[in-house]
Design brief:
heterodimer; A: alpha/beta; Glutaconate Coenzyme A-transferase; 3-stranded antiparallel beta sheet; 14 strands; B: alpha/beta; 10-stranded mixed beta sheet; two-stranded antiparallel sheet; 9 helices; about 30% helix
């Protein structure tokens, strides 16, 4: 791993995606319907990358957009939906109608898939869990093995380690060396970064290594797990980023309404993703004023202490 | 519910709130379950602590969450940690009660949140639902489970299309323990017309409490098996003004209860921010 370490891993989102996200690779995204890698998903769509296997816990915009754009071949995960807003329109169209492509499904529970990332991060082949027992998750997913605990005798489920080719993780701040600091909940991100072969960190802010050292407890992912560091302000919009901006429920709701119809979804994709050269162009289309208001709202409640 | 002074969703939230006890640790999902949790804190369970699967333990609810990983879900939390850690804490038995929604439930309280087959199959169902999320884990390993869903046709079925979350499985004695599950299983099913519980011996769901103005025949017609009725069938009290006020305060812009229509009725982001800030106490 030492060959990935150097003083400056900063690059553009375009270059990071081009270098590490390839046709047919397996990928996982950080966040937990909050602190999501929306900007990275947009860039993957812009570059026309296809046949992805997404291994993940719970996803909303990132998967709905990628599936709607025809970038995904297979899903191994626990939840695809829009929380209080509803079901995921592009996921439904793909699974029920095969439009634009039918994705293969492998269902897990959130704890089950969490144990796959933990096993990957521990470099052990599997983990036992007491989830999913007695259900159809086990019936349809042949990779979950039921065994008798060799010490105590009760039944437990074994899940295999996950080793995605790439993890993309959005954090509040990082230095160019690749130390990634998270403020707020952490999902499975520390394990995703360690389980993956390559890790791209996108962040709201680049800070000095000196600033990282002031709060070493906040470093969730140290430099040696990281291949690329990309500054992408507002990179989670319309999802939230703790301490930086609030969830844009109205924008997300509008997307959800339009994505229910395939043609309207394609128009949305043209307008906000394919018709935007990069993430800054997306932000301009959304409106800097709107983004700043979301930041103003969030910072009434939370910010990283100075 | 037409001219009633409350909606079906509001009544469901109030009935669910009564299932929480003070000082419990509750694993709740967003939406009406969370509104129920906040409502319980206003009344009989002020020390209820909420945990979200994103890794948020004991947040203070200044604003409404739309997803379990909204930054609002972390507001003022006692502990912010990882997803795998909170599920491990659940497996260790630290969490008392979980609230789950579902598209289908069967007579043993098994839940389906994965797919409605509609004559088709798992890979090509009529309706693909979100999947387990943390639902299976809650149903497997939390102290007890409260299920919330509307009593509508084809939801209360003899057998769920896909068993995502375990209730009492096939209802046989000790079925959960034999499967390796730790939690005690479903304690109540809260709907918009009635509340159901489970027989201690047969593990079968029965009608426990009927809501004002609803009759038994109406309920039986919507349940896909020969529903048993509690010998002392209870009638739920009408919600009080204080309870309704608490439910509405937990969802001030009506975006949880009101859905897409409520989103469209807002003038825009400015009005949303104004309502959020005004009701946050901050």
């Amino acid at each position: 791993m030492t060959d990935r370490n150097n003083a400056n891993k900063q690059m553009s989102l375009k270059d990071a995606v081009r270098k590490y996200v390839t046709d047919g690779c397996s990928i996982t995204f950080g966040g937990f319907i909050g602190r999501d890698c929306v900007a990275a998903a947009h860039e993957i769509i812009r570059q026309g990358i296809k046949n992805l296997t997404v291994i993940d816990d719970s996803k909303t915009d990132v998967m709905d957009l990628l599936v709607g754009a025809g970038a995904v071949k297979r899903w191994e995960g626990a939840y695809l939906g829009y929380g209080a807003i509803g079901l995921a329109p592009n996921i439904r169209r793909s699974v029920e109608k095969g439009v634009p492509l039918k994705i293969e499904l492998e269902d897990w529970s959130n704890a089950g898939i969490s144990m796959r990332f933990l096993a990957g991060s521990l470099n052990v082949p599997f983990m036992p869990t007491r989830s999913m027992l007695g259900t159809d998750i086990v019936k349809y997913n042949q990779r979950i093995k039921l065994i008798e605990d060799p010490y105590e005798g009760a039944t437990v489920a074994l899940v295999p380690a996950a080793h995605p080719d790439v993890a993309v993780i959005h954090v509040q701040r990082a230095d160019v060396m690749g130390n990634a600091q998270v403020w707020g909940f952490t999902g499975n991100d520390e394990n995703k970064a360690r389980a993956a072969r390559h890790t791209i960190i996108t962040c709201e802010e680049i800070v000095s290594t000196e600033e990282i050292r002031r709060r070493g407890n906040m470093t969730l992912i140290p430099f040696y797990c990281v291949d690329a560091v990309v500054q992408v302000p507002y990179g989670c919009h319309p999802q939230s980023c703790y301490g930086y901006y609030a969830y844009d429920v109205l924008f997300c709701g509008e997307y959800h309404e339009s994505a229910k119809d395939r043609d309207n979804f394609l128009r949305w994709l043209d307008r906000y993703v394919l018709g935007a050269a990069d993430h800054l162009a997306y932000c301009e289309k959304v409106g800097w004023d709107r983004l700043q208001k979301l930041m103003g709202l969030e910072r009434r409640f939370n910010r990283i202490p100075g | 519910m037409g001219d009633k002074r409350y909606s079906a969703s509001e009544l469901m939230a109030i009935m669910t709130a009564k299932e929480f006890r003070d000082w419990e640790v509750a694993f709740v999902g967003i939406g009406i379950p969370l509104v129920a949790g906040i409502t319980a804190k206003r009344f009989h369970a002020p020390n209820l602590n909420i945990v979200y699967e994103s890794g948020c333990i004991g947040p203070q609810k200044y604003r409404v969450d739309f997803n379990v990983g909204d930054s609002s879900a972390a507001d003022g939390a006692l502990c912010l940690t990882s997803e795998w850690r909170v599920f491990s804490d659940m497996q260790c038995g630290y969490y008392d009660v979980g609230v789950l929604g579902a598209a289908q439930v069967d007579k043993y309280g098994n839940l389906n949140t994965t797919a409605i087959f509609g004559g088709q199959d798992y890979q090509s169902p009529k309706v693909r639902l979100p999947g387990s999320g943390g639902g299976n884990d809650i149903g497997s390993n939390i102290g007890r489970v409260v299920v919330m869903l509307r009593l509508e046709p084809l939801r209360f079925v003899e057998k769920v299309d896909y068993l995502t979350t375990p209730g009492f499985l096939d209802g046989s004695p000790g079925a959960r323990k034999k499967a390796g599950l730790l939690g005690s299983g479903p304690a109540a099913v809260v709907t918009d017309k009635a509340l159901f519980r489970f027989d201690r011996q047969t593990r079968e769901m029965y009608l426990d409490t009927i809501y004002p103005g609803v009759n038994i025949e109406e309920i039986k017609a919507l349940v896909g098996w020969d529903l048993k009725i509690a010998p002392q069938l209870k009638t739920a009290p009408e919600p009080t003004d204080e309870e309704l006020e608490a439910v509405r305060a937990a969802d001030p812009a009506n975006l949880i209860m009101g859905g897409a229509a409520a989103r469209k009725s807002l003038a825009g982001l400015d009005e949303y921010i104004e309502i959020t800030v005004k009701n946050s106490g901050k």
